[in-house]
Amino acid sequence: MESAKNDSNIIQLRLPGMRTHRSAPASANCCSVHVGQQVVYMGSISGGPRFGSSGVVTEALQRKAVVDMGESGIWNIPYHFLTLPQAA
Predict the structure, then answer these.
(1) 55, containing H or E segment
(2) Residue 79 phi/psi, 5° resolution?
């Protein structure tokens, strides 16, 4: 067992067989999202699009993006529910 210290002064014990910590993807914002860009929905709202579904930005506004989610329809989604897809 060994301890790891990261930049934020939080100590996490590393136990044998445990995977290393991966930070959550950063949410999108008005500066990182552009029209035509693909985004992934990470929200969990009843009646909304499914978690993890992807779509294309049709309009980037100051606090939300208008996203075409294909068969799920077109949604106005706040940026804190969107992430950019990870490179494969």
Answers:
(1) strand 54-60
(2) -60, -30
